[in-house]
Design a protein that fits this description.
The protein is mainly β. The protein has 2 domains: 133 residues, no CATH class; 77 residues, Peptidase S8 propeptide/proteinase inhibitor I9 (Alpha-Beta Plaits, 2-Layer Sandwich). The protein is built from 3 helices and 15 strands. Strand 5 and strand 6 form a beta hairpin. The chain is elongated.
Length: 223
């Protein structure tokens, strides 16, 4: 999908690129725009990809995107997801970084698939990267359900079951019911599952002894 950089944000040209800050939207003429896009192969139809940020890093544009599970039932068929954004025109080469991948087979796309953003954020800071584009964050209501990934400790399961005899799927269902959530998919490869919870429920679930960590199924992690 095409996403513009004018979602109620002020767009400022800094060194020929966009910098965003709160304020009225100022449109960049299409003739002066460049479209940046990516397409990723995913294992089911239940995935989405979004370009989160674009930076100018020395003589390159670094594009940071995130893969997220949609939750619910999905077709078990190899699919393609894509996204694109518009930035001011530039001839600089583009390098893609993608977070959120949760399958173990290798993608053929010429992108760097990252476990998290820690090293990348460090490089951006050291190289004094200039922000070109940032996707506006939608404000969530206090009790609005958000999509999360819950990962259990490896020691919780012995021969596929807990000490009380629960499987991964059974434990996921119990915790989802207990904390008023909506179960998405069981993710055996990471010893966890996806589900929708309110922020308050997430804080309570994090305190359960079986839980290793919970992360937002999006660009921001909750540890």
């Amino acid at each position: 999908m095409m996403v513009s950089t004018t979602y109620g944000l002020m767009t400022l040209l800094i060194g020929g690129f966009l910098q965003t800050s709160a304020g009225p939207a100022i449109a960049v003429p299409k003739a002066k725009q460049r479209s940046i896009s990516l397409q990723v192969t995913v294992p089911t139809s239940g995935w989405n990809v979004e370009i989160q940020e674009v930076y100018q890093v020395e003589k390159e544009l670094w594009v940071i995107s995130h893969l997220a599970s949609k939750g619910g039932i999905a077709l078990q068929v190899i699919s393609q997801v894509k996204d694109s954004v518009s930035v001011p025109k530039s001839s600089l080469p583009v390098k893609h970084f993608v977070t959120g991948k949760r399958w173990n087979w290798k993608n053929k796309e010429p992108y760097q698939f990252l476990k998290d953003r820690k090293m990348l954020d460090r490089d951006l800071k050291q190289k004094k990267a200039v922000l070109v584009y940032r996707r506006p964050v939608k404000k969530e209501k206090p009790n609005q359900l958000g999509q999360y990934i819950v990962v259990y400790k490896k020691t919780v399961f012995v021969d596929g079951k807990t000490k009380t005899g629960e499987t991964l799927e059974q434990l996921a269902k119990r915790h989802t019911r207990q904390f008023g959530g909506k179960l998405g998919r069981v993710l055996k490869i990471i010893n966890g599952y996806s589900a929708s919870f309110s922020p308050a429920a997430v804080e309570k679930l994090k305190k359960q002894p079986e839980v290793k960590y919970i992360e937002k199924d999006g660009p921001v992690g909750i540890r």
